[in-house]
Amino acid sequence: MNSGKHNIILKLNSGEIEIMLMRCPNCSSKDIGKIGTQQFYCWNCFIEMSISGNELTIHQVESDGSLSSLNDLFTEEERKLEW
Predict the structure, then answer these.
(1) Would you say the pTM of this structure is higher than 0.85?
(2) Is the separation of the CB atoms in 20 and 33 below 8 Å?
(3) What is the pLDDT of residues 51-68, one digit of tens each?
(4) How confident is the model at residue 75, as a pLDDT?
(5) Does residue 14 sit in helix, strand or coil?
(6) What is the rounded distance in angstroms from the CA atom of residue 8 to the CA atom of residue 25?
(7) Integer Cα distance of 7 and 49 in angstroms
(8) HSE (CB half, 13 Å, CA atoms) of 50?
């Protein structure tokens, strides 16, 4: 877990332009892929993140495909997004 700001997502509502600069809150990797609407995946540590309001919700993908919440391992500040 990292104490610095790493999650920056900038949305421009003119058309469908979306600029995203994002680091994984768990491992700080920039190797983040978009897997759905407001859903992202870290290819380095294999966690799934989704945007809910101005916060990330963070999950571990289990071997059976289910998700286990990791939100309790991160502070609100670590999960907060800057727009």
Answers:
(1) no
(2) no
(3) 888 889 999 999 999 999
(4) 92
(5) coil
(6) 11
(7) 11
(8) 11
Single-letter amino acid code for the residue at 40: F
Listed in sequence order, the DSSP H helices in the chain are: 76-79
Interatomic CA distance for residues 19 and 9, integer angstroms: 7
User: What is the DSSP secondary-structure string of 33-67?
Assistant: EEEETTEEEETTT-EEEEEETTEEEEEEEPTTS-E
pLDDT at 2: 41
Residues 6+ apart with CB under 8 A from 50: 36, 38, 39, 40, 56, 57, 59
Mention every residue, 6+ apart, whose C-beta is less than 8 A from residue 58.
Answer: 25, 26, 47, 48, 49, 69, 70, 71, 73, 74, 79
Residue-range domain boundaries for the chain: 7-79
Lookup: tokens for 1: 């877990």
